[in-house]
Amino acid sequence: MTAAAIEPEPVPLTRDAAGRLIVIGTRVPLDTLVAAFERGDSPEAIHESYPTVSLGDIYAIFTYCVRHRDDVNDYLAGR
């Protein structure tokens, strides 16, 4: 039996030319996803609203937001 190689994946965010954090491969900014989640939208509902963002990426981004809450809040406050 061969052990499966499990590699960590980076958070699927990048900065655009304006300095905004956006989901890689889309034009959807982090601000939009966080605002939808804070309104009470589920990750599945957010994916339905923004189908260019995979459900897995939404969960990965929200995991990052929870683990780095202060940094994300500082970023959002500066926007």
Instruction: Supply Rg.
Output: 14 Å
Strand order of the largest sheet: 1-2
Shape: globular
Helix content: 40-55%
What amount of the residues lies in strands?
5-15%
Record field, number of beta strands? 2
Low-confidence stretches: none
Determine the mean pLDDT: 95
Give the helix tally. Answer: 4
Structural class: mainly alpha
**Helix and strand element order:** EEHHHH
What is the terminal separation in angstroms?
Answer: 50 Å
Which helices and strands appear, and what pairs or packs with what?
Elements: E1 13-15, E2 21-23, H1 30-38, H2 43-49, H3 55-67, H4 69-78
Antiparallel strand pairs: 1-2
Overall description:
The protein is built from 4 helices and 2 strands. It is mostly helical and 79 residues long. It is globular, with a radius of gyration of 14 Å. The termini are far apart. The longest helix has 13 residues. Strands 1-2 form a two-stranded antiparallel sheet. A hairpin with a 5-residue loop joins strand 1 and strand 2.
